[in-house]
Amino acid sequence: MVAMTDRLVTALVPPVQARATTSAPPPTPTNPPPLATLVRRDTLQYGMGRIDASGRVSDKSLLRALGWRPGQRLGVTAVEQAVVVFPDPAGVFAVSHTHYVVLPAPVRRRCGFRPGDRVLLAADPDHRVLVVHPTVALDRMLIAYHTSLAGGKER
């Protein structure tokens, strides 16, 4: 006797020989590239944004540089205190028709982002990745840079 679930699975999964044998283009990766590969690039583009109460942030020029249009499915993940947003065909979030990217609440909480926070946006068009940094990261980078300009002595 065949169970009802067996019939449903059989109806939804085509037999192996019925599947197409033509080679399809490789799918878009569902994981972001390692952040270290982004650091060595000289093609990064920057912007500033503000996180609204719904977790939305935007910089239209950066989204254009990334080639992201409304409806583009996105993956979102936290890496330390930064958020990495990348194309993901199976992504739960998408670029809105008003060109916003949504940072989900669990990711915002993990990174310490609150509504109204200003953030540094770093776009890598070569990898089609957007990294959202808290302004404290910008502070750290500038302090280190300014310290190096002063001969390595913090004043």
TrEMBL record:
Top-level taxon of the source organism: Bacteria
Compositionally biased intervals (Pro residues): 24-35
Disordered: region residues: 14-36
InterPro entries: SpoVT-AbrB_sf
Protein name: AbrB family looped-hinge helix DNA binding protein
Species per Swiss-Prot/TrEMBL record: Amycolatopsis cihanbeyliensis
Lineage: Bacteria, Bacillati, Actinomycetota, Actinomycetes, Pseudonocardiales
